[in-house]
Write the structure tokens for this entry.
Amino acid sequence: MRLNRICLFACALTFSHWVLAECTISEEAKRLDAVEVGLCESDAVFVGRVEQRIETASGVREAGSTRTVHVGTETSTVRVLKSYKGTLPDKVTMVANLYDAKVAFSFQKDKEYLVFAKRRADEKGYTGASATCSVQPTLPFEDAKAVLAQLEQHRKGRKPIDCSKIRVKEAGN
């Protein structure tokens, strides 16, 4: 189906821009089942509890420049409680750019989340999907009931997700 190929390309572009300041979700992608897109485009999908959250700030000045660029980073340690995609250790590191909250999801200590994550290019942890850049963002656990139900249907083989044939969103969703 042409729409699926367009979405997979658009979604791949969207996910590749998690580390950049600007990202958009294509209209084609918005018409597809968000959970299926999220599962297929994420490197890892899991339920986790944030055990530690550290904010750091630094300044970077490129050689020959007089301008300092300030960077705020959130590094969270998340204990994996249940995995839906990916082979994960007991704890994973999630990293977010605090100066651009649109791009990466920011976590709160001691809260549980359903995490849709992409591995960082530097291999130092993952970045959580945000609502601005992803059809299916990371969600606080208490807001993830319907998404978790669909992931369980997939896990049990009752409604398998085929990443080459992502379904159009059902009416009312």
About this structure: The longest strand covers residues 44-60.
